[in-house]
Write the structure tokens for this entry.
Amino acid sequence: EEEQHWIYFQNQDIGRSLLIGPHINQSFYGWSDNSGQTDLYWLGREHRNEIGLKLNPQDLSKHSFETAYLLAKKGDIGVVPLGTDGCLRSEHVKTWWPTFKQQGGKVLSLSAVSFESKKMCQKMFSKHPIMTDKGSALWVFSAGNRSESEAHFCPQYLTNQENVMLVGASYENQVHHKSSRGIDFVDIFTSGNSELSQSWGTSYAAPRVARVAALISKSFPHFSPFEVKVSIMLSAKIPEWYELPARSRGLLDESAAMKFSKSLNSNGGNIYSTIADHHCYVWQSSCDESERRVRIYHEILKGVE
């Protein structure tokens, strides 16, 4: 029975193993409800995107596959497809959360929104592992595609948690004109294009960050979600002539994030020593870049709940 709880699924288009669960007949397309039809018209439930356009199951399947591809294409991390309800609803999370932790799960990536108010969102998450088990996993959310600097959806309202990252979409090292942004909202930017179609959006930016977070967690499983988060944010690539409107002020830099996390581990978790090691040379008597990163770190700390 335990072996049937998580089922390996080979998909040659991705070319890697995916985990699907918690039931054989569920989550095949990346949601926790039964595969095939997820709209429940008789209950007033329909899937729509951020601007109100209705999504059909084929669109949802394509979106799920393309985001999963960005996570799984290199085969260096395991992927467990879950649906929006499976991630957000406490009553669903409890069915897989213990197994996720037991099997060493460290990072979750969500490229979706739910349309609750901020008050309802906070109430909905009051008993959710995001709030009750902050030390177990890092949750990486797409920030949204509204060109605005504040959240309008759930779980994007949870922007100031130590175990949450909000990811915006970039284009050629600049903020995509339709991506959400803001130093009090978005944590970091990265490319928002799908590699399998012409689609774009923060949906495709989030899994790129989540994959790097998973690689860091794989290398240093003792790291807290916050240590993984700051390894990515404090190593971000900040454009030479301007800062981007995100807490990190920059773009995801995978190699720099891995290097920063290695240094952080060597320094016993000392953030300040790691910033100095990563951003300064030993011959420098002063280091403006190190000082800037320390200021960014203090802003991150100030915003954490």
Notes: The first helix runs from residue 2 to 5.
